[in-house]
Amino acid sequence: MSVSHEYNELASFLEYKSVFEIHYDDMIDIVVEVQRLTDEDMVDFLYSGLENNGFDNKYEIIKGFFLDDKVSYTLLERFDLTWLVDDTELNGFTFPVDAVSDRERIKKQILTSELNKIRTIEVTKSERVPSKLFTDDDRRKYALEKYRPINSNGHFCQMCKEQKREKYIEVNAIEYEPKYAWRQMHLCFCLKCSKDFESLRNNKQNQTYSKFIAAMLNATVNNNVPNAVAIGNKQIYFTATHLAEVQEILKRQRDLEQEELQKGR
Questions:
Q1: Do 13 and 53 touch, CB atoms closer than 8 A?
Q2: Which of 62, 123, 140, 214 has a 20 to 30 A CA-CA distance from 130?
Q3: 129 has which bridge partners?
Q4: CA 153 to centroid of chain Cα atoms
């Protein structure tokens, strides 16, 4: 495909002042003739012109070619343009439900799991780190897989319910100051919602955090739809199994705290 010749003719026909003003929708006849865009085509769209700024609507055009299966994802990677379409391939998936098939099995698993206390160590700053058992990578993978639909390359944010690729996902601890390292006690968020959640979780002035913990404990697990739990003015959505796991962990931790109080008397 010769961008300079065919597109100049098109621009003249459409009475544009310049070939660089055309839009993807103007190019229907040319698109039909194109098999796949090449590296040379990409350079033309991105960098041609007197000031090497390319076409005015270059990103719209390249995304259009991608949606019409004329540009490979690999080609976009070579030009660092995957951000144009990163959410495109994630359309059509629904938020996972993951129904609870055996609540007693979940309860038994939590009750028999080895307790892994988090200890505070001094490095350049005070950090809370797990002493053993699960690494940060283990906990991240667990949360990511919980919210990755089958056959999808993305993961759902538990707040906005939008799907993002892994590099745009953060995994946050449910608890403000966790005492034990449970891989189930983490949430999957997009970058924006991760910040929103931390702001709400860390706010102790209006009891947002304690109300959130109580809401999770008291929630009725629904096997048919995502389970919404309020935190401040936001909602966190859980799969049925994940919420059941969190509930059993919170119950066990509550029982352990009561046992410790009784021993201290």
A1: no
A2: 214
A3: 119
A4: 10
Beta bridge partners of 247: none
Give me 128's structure tokens: 């809370």
Residue in the structure block whose two tokens are 């038994």: 108
- Strands (E) located in 84-219: 118-122, 126-130, 154-156, 163-165, 169-173, 186-190
Distance CA 264, CA 191 (A): 42
Give mean pLDDT in consecutive 10-residue pieces for the chain, a chain of 265 residues. Answer: 54 67 78 82 85 87 85 88 74 88 95 76 46 63 91 87 87 92 94 94 87 96 96 96 97 90 74
What does the alpha-carbon distance between residue 131 and residue 3 come to, in Å, rounded to a whole number?
60
Contact between 226 and 241 under an 8 Å Cβ cutoff? The reply is no
Nearest to 93 by CA among 143, 172, 147: 147
Helix, strand, coil in percent for the chain, rounding step 5: 50, 15, 40
Per-residue exposure over 129-162, b if at least 16 CB sit within 10 Å of its own CB, e if not: ebeeebeeeebbebbbebbbbeebebbbbbbbbe
Give the side-chain half-sphere CA count within 13 A for 25.
0
In order of 58, 106, 164, 228, the CA distances from 242 in angstroms are 43, 10, 20, 12
Return the sign of the alpha-carbon dihedral for residues 47, 53, 54, 58. Answer: positive
CA distances from 40 to 44, 75, 140, 168, 233 (A): 6, 11, 40, 30, 50
